[in-house]
């Protein structure tokens, strides 16, 4: 068997494999179009050269503790029905993790069909979203001085980028976008597609927030929020207040929002707001040693962490982390551990999805020494992940 990147002429076979695996329709009428977008595909071929299983590795740059770091997004995992239960996906993932490590992609993210299944590969929940539904007339009390402008791609793109980059500065997992990445997200025909983006300008004329929504799939009475970003909560509330002018043509604002947006502190009639928390994808630490080097803390403090990783040998070790003046040193060690955990718990508290203190209270790890300092080092953090693939 062979695992490798595919060639353009092999992409049709991969798409056919995925069509059978997912029971999804594909259009193969244009051979040249079929060859497009093959670069991210990896596949396992049998001894006869037939593709049996496949996945994609999508390259991203994301925020982590104030740094821009590489992440490999795993998508389109598929196996022919007759080739299942033969270990093909496990072989694919081993290949993918090796490649991601070589490429410096220290995290890997995916959207699972089964959370227990991907925990076998060391993935863990790392981001939750709140699904929110708000009657638009409940936003009327939020109206504030300023004005909104309907987004025009060529006119307002730089303004929108400035808001987005300000918003993600302190949020782990947020995707750092290139300018061309905004085009498929925001370059839409407002009138033909019923996709709209509004930018809010405060009373001083400063752009402070934007919201993008799609009303087409919901019919004429609901706005489905696709992205909401802001420089401050004053701007966020004012923009939501502006949306109330669409009532009564539009009845409801719906969408997925980060958990750090607390609507109980925003909407006066909070009893009219429906909220439901749900997980959005899973993250994996591909290279523990490199991730630990991105921590920062008081100079002079050090600790030893023992990590159990049953999916990656190079993560399964003890690491001594020492903080100096503007520099973090990480080295493998045989010293006794101050903190011991498996890689799944590490992924949760290191990214800030949970805090180390909560993990300890729930009995998910062991701390021998330096407990209070370690609690301070690993608090809850703000997270943001909107990209899907």
Q: How would you explain this protein's 3D organization?
A:
The chain has 389 residues and is of the alpha+beta class. It has three domains: 2-110, Aminopeptidase (3-Layer(aba) Sandwich), CATH 3.40.630.30; 130-279, Aminopeptidase; 287-377, SCP2 sterol-binding domain (Nonspecific Lipid-transfer Protein, Chain A, 2-Layer Sandwich), CATH 3.30.1050.10. Helix content is 25%, strand content 31%. The chain has a seven-stranded mixed beta sheet with strand order 1-2-3-4-5-14-6, with helices on both faces. A hairpin with a 5-residue loop joins β2 and β3 (51-64). It is globular. The two termini are 28 Å apart. The model has no long low-confidence stretch (mean pLDDT 95).
Q: What's this entry about, in short?
A:
By secondary structure, the chain is of the alpha+beta class. The protein contains twelve helices and 19 strands. Helices cover 25% and strands 31% of the residues.
Task: Note the topology.
Layout: E1 2-5, H1 11-22, H2 31-35, E2 41-45, E3 51-64, E4 67-79, H3 88-102, E5 105-110, H4 115-119, E6 124-125, E7 128-135, E8 147-150, H5 153-167, H6 182-186, H7 190-193, E9 195-201, E10 207-214, E11 222-230, H8 233-243, E12 252-258, E13 274-279, E14 282-285, H9 288-292, E15 302-308, E16 317-323, E17 328-332, E18 339-342, H10 343-351, H11 356-361, E19 366-367, H12 371-377
Parallel strand pairs: 4-5, 11-12, 15-18
Antiparallel strand pairs: 1-2, 2-3, 3-4, 5-14, 6-14, 7-12, 7-13, 8-9, 9-10, 10-11, 15-16, 16-17, 18-19
